Amino acid sequence: MDRPFSSLAKHPDIPPLPRPGPSRLALVIGLVSASALAYEITLTRIFSLLFQYHFAYLAVSLAILGLSVGAALVTILGIDDAHRLPAVRHGLALLSLSFVGVAGLLATLPTTVSIALHVAVALVPFVLIGVCLALTFALGPKASGALYAGDLAGAVIGIAVVLGLLAALGAFNVVIALGAVASAALIVLDFVLPTRLSSATLGLVAATAAHREARGAAANIGRWCLGLSAAMLIVNLGTHVIDYSPLRISDAPADKTMLAVLHDLAQNARIVYTVWDPFARVDVVETSDTSQKFVFTDAGAGSYMLRLTDGLTQVNGLRGTLEYVPLATGPAGKTLILGAGAGKDIVLAELRGSPEVVAVEVNPSMVEVTRRFAAYNGHVFDRPDVRTVVGDARTFVEGSPERFDLVYLNLVYSQATPPAAQALAENYAFTREAFRAYLSHLSDDGRLAIIAHNGIEGTRAAITAIAALSDLGVPLPDTLDHLALLMKNASDPTQRPTIMILSKRPLAQDTIGQLGAVSKVLGLQPLHLPGVFELGFKGIKDGQSIDAFLSADKDSPYALAPVTDNNPFFFKLDRGIPAPVIQALVFASVLALFQLILLIGQAQRTSLVLVVYIACIGLGFMLIEVPLIQRFQLLIGYPVLALALVLAALLLGGGAGSWISQRWPVATLGRRVSVAGGLIVGIGLVYLLALPAVVALAVSLPFITRVVIVVLLTAPLGWAMGVPFPSALRFAGEQGVQHIGLLWGLNGAFSVLGSTLAMWLAMSAGFEVAFALGVAAYAALTGVAWHLRG
User: Fold this and answer.
1) Residue ranges matching CATH 3.40.50.150 in the chain
2) CB of 285 within 8 A of CB of 258?
3) Could you tell me the end-to-end alpha-carbon distance of the chain, in angstroms, rounded to an integer?
């Protein structure tokens, strides 16, 4: 029983406490939804820090899974109409407490190799959010359009606010702060008095007093939860008790190189500075070697910050390193460095005597940290011959009118990583289209140089590079005269960094001679060097196409074909689909099947039509959303901003569509939803044909213009996609369907399936195929909606 309301028993003539109206329910839903989206984005940051890169996107599926499980629990537990409001109250209190508890557990669990425990802990708030949302929607099914609009508006606010909070507080403090948001939802639910307490005139004063007493007692729970969250946040800001502690972790993935450095007692390593932002956590690590510092992004992707207090003479030893070879074996000219890190590659270019260096770095915190230690690194980002650009490499090149004598990408981390450590990391800097852009911005004697982690990665880069050069008009066999590929000999495959150089003109004989001499000094093995070693690509030299050349070696376990913007998984070097994607797809399929069985077993004939309808929504929405985010990532440049911008535009548009649909009579919903579905299909077909060309044309425009383009292209689609789901809930409520929670859970289950299916399709066939399947799902929904028009 809901004990705070027991005082009403003293006044038997007083009517029961009124159910909150649609406006208040919408506000509660908005706060809960804001906390859900903020938690989801924050969790991507925590997972990226704790695990390997691709597990960051586990948070997205985890959010959908938790919401669907929570919605299903509402029905399984049999919470009837009389107990829904108390259940929402208890759920919000537990949600507030769970945020604080989850932050503490995720920060203190000692291992990161087995992620099952972390996933179980992180899932709890999502399940509670699913319970609260399903119950609150069930309190007002006839106002589902207004409630869904509040849901989407809250999600947009959560996205916008969390980007700033991550930089101000750090990820773990943000999770603690979300407990206060859930508490605020509870206070709103219990504190705001209804406009009408009773229609009776007799006993009005007593009724008012009783209702206030009951609400005041209940609101104490919200105030206690709010106070606890605020107190924990204040304490943690001062003590950092709940935070990422590398020394507390007993094991970690191999690509978390910061932990290996910190656990190596011989290096006497320590973190001296940390900064969070929406992109990553950046740590500066000092060791006993005073000539350099490490700068790590999400505990991996280490970059060197070199000591330059006495000028370049301190780093003359770099002239004998593998990374210096591409600069030394060609003219010293204008150099473009893509992925500048903490500035080591700038120093290499200056050692070579480059008169102008343009350094592009996507992570603003990396630039901020390097400038913070400017006295140590010789103001490397602000030297007279250096121009620093904070932005995405591909977007910068596409929008720049400049030409360069060398385009240089150094991929090698501070320590070795397994060849497949980034298998699920999409990257638009290494696609065939990207290489075409780099080559188009080279001077007549310019060179493209890439330092890769290993020979397999370097070979894929070389094949992509010659494919791009052939796209620009050079016959494919002749492209090999422009290519040099050298690999460091080592027994460990992760310790074989590789140099790839592609010249816009055929390599000169003196350059080939220099590369041959350098190979002997540094112990490099030529994988291809014109006139010296050409066996590696003999098939292409003899006239084979790239596809024929690669298919000739059927026993090779590696995928070396050039990647494209439609399938940008450069680091997926193994054939087939990675195990995490297959496992996620199997799990999502089982979850969707379970929800289907659960709902069909309890549904009436009318609900069976809704099952198909809602399954189409879950699949279609995610199969369209995921490719849109990927496509606009290239246009916006910053992955996190592209994610936030597309989600915000979809949700704002969806909120508007949901709000408008609430005004439509239920009798017309089937016909109107079929029109909305047809609009989605029409826009989707246009985007399939035209969107790649639009992105290619717009990528060189100013940033704010590109943002406007993304919003204008996304919001109308979001408007139409915001109509079907709340219309289904209204239809179910009007027809007396008793399983609203299961309908909500079914949508979540098929959304999980849609998101994992989108990734599987992207890796096997490309994002365009995933998008096309999403359009097909909405075409099926249009037919079902037309069936419901009566």
Assistant:
1) 311-552
2) yes
3) 41
